[in-house]
Amino acid sequence: MWLHTHLIQDMLSICREVFKGGVHYAWASVPTYPSGVIGFLLCAKDGPPVDFLTPVNPIEKIEGATKDGREMRFYNSEIHRAAFILPTFVKRELEAYNTSTEKEKPEKPAAKPVKMKVMRDSAITAS
């Protein structure tokens, strides 16, 4: 976002034409990446709008995720939601192209939560 906001605008525009279930831009700090930030486009092909901002299966609620030293040291639901909060200059530029990530609210969730469990061998199973 520091170097190529115009490319983000172009990609959002293209993805919104193709993916009708939802398109959102998010970012994360990656110190080894040029400018220290990498961006992500999350897209859903079709169906009801997808609420990418709220984890369907919050890591804090996965059975066994915080036991036996398996807890995530960085990622959590708050970090997930914060990835969609954009700096003012980026938000302003993207809103100029009608791509604000904060104004889109899904009508209803697209997916039902799945009960997940972290196993001793670090595998994650879903039921």
UniProtKB/TrEMBL annotation:
> SUPFAM superfamilies from the entry?
S-adenosyl-L-methionine-dependent methyltransferases
> What GO molecular functions are on record for this protein?
spermidine synthase activity
Say yes or no: keyword ATP-binding present. no
Q: Where is the PABS domain?
A: 1-45
Q: Which domain of life is it from?
A: Eukaryota
The record's section on InterPro entries has:
PABS (IPR030374), SAM-dependent_MTases_sf (IPR029063), Spermi_synthase (IPR001045)
**Alphabetized Gene3D superfamilies for the sequence:** Vaccinia Virus protein VP39
Q: Per the record, what is one GO cellular component?
A: cytosol
Any GO BP annotation:
spermidine biosynthetic process
**PROSITE patterns, sorted:** PABS_2
Q: Where are the transmembrane segments?
A: none
Q: Kindly indicate whether the keyword tRNA processing belongs to this entry.
A: no
Assigned keywords, A-Z:
Polyamine biosynthesis, Transferase
| Family classification | Belongs to the spermidine/spermine synthase family.
Return the protein name: PABS domain-containing protein
Lineage from the top down? Eukaryota, Viridiplantae, Streptophyta, Embryophyta, Tracheophyta
